[in-house]
Design a protein that fits this description.
This protein has one domain. 70% of the residues lie in helices and 0% in strands. It has 16 helices and no strands.
């Protein structure tokens, strides 16, 4: 597979991954609403941490079964990659959840996408040169689109506990993207290190669920209806096994900066799904969860993010480098192929 072909396929698959992740927003919202009726004494910390525990724990078991014959040959490199991804992702999720309890959801959504700035800055520091103008322009478009999409109120935006924790979570998600990009892991088997990653993220959430559970029986009681199990199934099948496996398989074919900008499509898809899915979920589970309305913010914000990704992935002709004045091009011998010019 040529580099250009792999990059085009990677773009399509990573956009699909953001669609799967976007499904988790209305599904998680519906799940929590259903669980609040089952365990009214529990708080959002318990529901969130328990969901992460089950969601990633079951996903790890599924992958372990799928690659049971080869998992015994888990290499140190695959173990190291999975541990790093799990630690970055697990810690980021915990900070994001706690930060959401201390700030507006719109502010959290906006600040979480800050990794589209951290990634080109890191690339610039590592390479010792400033990011390309096109990348900076696309980053600005994405941030503007997310700000419009989240309807951030700039007058009330402050750096309190929730905002700081969300920014730290964004830094950890940046580390997760960069850890996945490391060349030393290029030949690792996706199912192997993904199983380790999911197991680590699940284990990290167990203490939080234990400390916030009103009763030990609530670990089962929160999922005792077909609806709650169905929502958990959606999160496992699409948002975890679907989204993360696509990320782990295809991100290697694009740069970390490009991946960060592609992942910012997630809030666009999440907002679009929120126009339809809440009513379906309500009929299924007997909760009251209304559809969101199509707004100018959704259209404008989504357009800015889409435009940024189109510009980023569009082929741009490289500027020809002028030959030095003293250089005299040699005439090719008759019948010999012409050397391609450097670009």
């Amino acid at each position: 597979m040529s580099g250009d072909s792999a990059q085009r396929k990677a773009l399509a698959w990573l956009v699909l991954a953001t669609m799967f992740w976007a499904l988790s927003f209305p599904a998680m919202k519906a799940l929590v609403l259903a669980q609040q009726a089952l365990v009214p004494a529990a708080g959002s910390w318990f529901f969130s941490s328990l969901c992460v525990t089950y969601r990633f724990g079951v996903s790890a078991l599924v992958l372990a079964v799928c690659c049971a014959r080869t998992l015994r040959g888990l290499s140190r490199s695959e173990l190291g990659q999975g541990l790093g991804l799990g630690l970055f992702g697990g810690a980021g999720l915990l900070l994001q959840v706690d930060g959401l309890a201390h700030t507006d959801a719109s502010t959290s959504a906006f600040l979480t996408q800050s990794y589209c700035l951290w990634l080109p800055l890191w690339a610039a520091l590592r390479q010792g040169r400033r990011p390309p103008a096109r990348v900076l322009a696309c980053s600005a478009l994405v941030l503007a689109g997310v700000a419009v999409l989240a309807r951030v109120d700039w007058r009330h935006l402050r750096l309190g506990r929730g905002e700081i924790e969300t920014l730290l979570a964004s830094v950890l998600f940046t580390g997760q993207i960069l850890w996945l990009e490391r060349p030393r892991y290029a030949r690792n088997r996706v199912l192997h290190f993904s199983a380790v990653m999911f197991a680590v993220m699940s284990v990290m959430s167990v203490p939080v669920a234990m400390l916030t559970a009103p009763r030990a029986a609530d670990w089962v009681g929160a999922y005792r209806t077909p609806a709650t199990l169905g929502f958990l199934g959606l999160l496992i099948g699409f948002s975890t096994l679907g989204g993360y496996l696509l990320m782990n398989r295809w991100q290697r074919h694009v740069t970390a900066t490009e991946a960060g900008l592609i992942y910012c499509c997630e809030p666009v898809f999440a907002s679009s799904m929120a126009l339809v899915l809440p009513t379906w979920f309500s009929r299924w589970s007997g909760i009251h969860y209304g559809n969101e309305q199509l707004t100018l913010s959704l259209l404008l914000g989504g357009s800015l993010i889409t435009l940024a990704n189109v510009i980023l992935q569009s082929p741009w002709p490289a500027r020809p480098r002028p030959a030095p004045a003293h250089a005299i091009p040699a005439s090719p011998a008759p019948g010999s192929p012409r050397e391609p010019s450097a670009s």
